[in-house]
Amino acid sequence: MKIAVICANGKEGKLIVREAIARGADVTAVVRRENQSEATSVIKKDLFDLTAADLEGFDVVIDAFGAWTPEALPQHSTSLKHLCNLVSGTETRLLVVGGAGSLYVTPEHTVQVMDGADFPEVFKPLASNMGKALDELRTRTDVKWTYISPAGDFQADGARTGKYILGGEELTLNAKGESIISYADYAVAMVDEALNGSHIQQRISVVAE
């Protein structure tokens, strides 16, 4: 399987590259600067400069883009729209590293994690912009997309256990009542979805066992 990982130099991107290579995939890193991932095949381009030809022939494109500064937050929408346009109408699947703020906490799907009184104010702009990008993604019936939300406590340096609980649109807690997952176990879930393609045009979520 041929997989392209966009923003492969990021913390999550590097772990996804490592996991995919370990599972036997042919992985290409898409990076703006010198490649720091374990991929030996590289496309050195800014995400917004990518063309449809760049992504032609890949079975899966994994979007690990992240923006954190206030002025860059709208790029969650613009970058995802650009990638959708590049793979529109093709067999290439687009998998997105998503956020937890847009997960629902009511069965009616009327209240999201980011709406909670205890949700940190500092993260609301990020969660809101990522939620908007997901809403826009849901309208793309021309793209074989999957959006994967991590647990609420997304731990960069957590261990790889290789295990996780697969959830859907709602915030899922494990047996300990926690919403937690490591970047490494999230990468396991991402590569599982890349290899299996089980959730086309769906948002799924993952939490540690």
Automatic annotation (TrEMBL):
NAD(P)-binding domain: residues covered: 8-192
InterPro entries assigned to the protein according to its UniProt record, in alphabetical order: NAD(P)-bd_dom, NAD(P)-bd_dom_sf, Polyketide_Oxido-like
Gene3D superfamilies: NAD(P)-binding Rossmann-like Domain
Molecular function as annotated in GO: oxidoreductase activity, acting on the CH-NH group of donors, NAD or NADP as acceptor
Name recorded for this polypeptide: NAD(P)H-binding protein
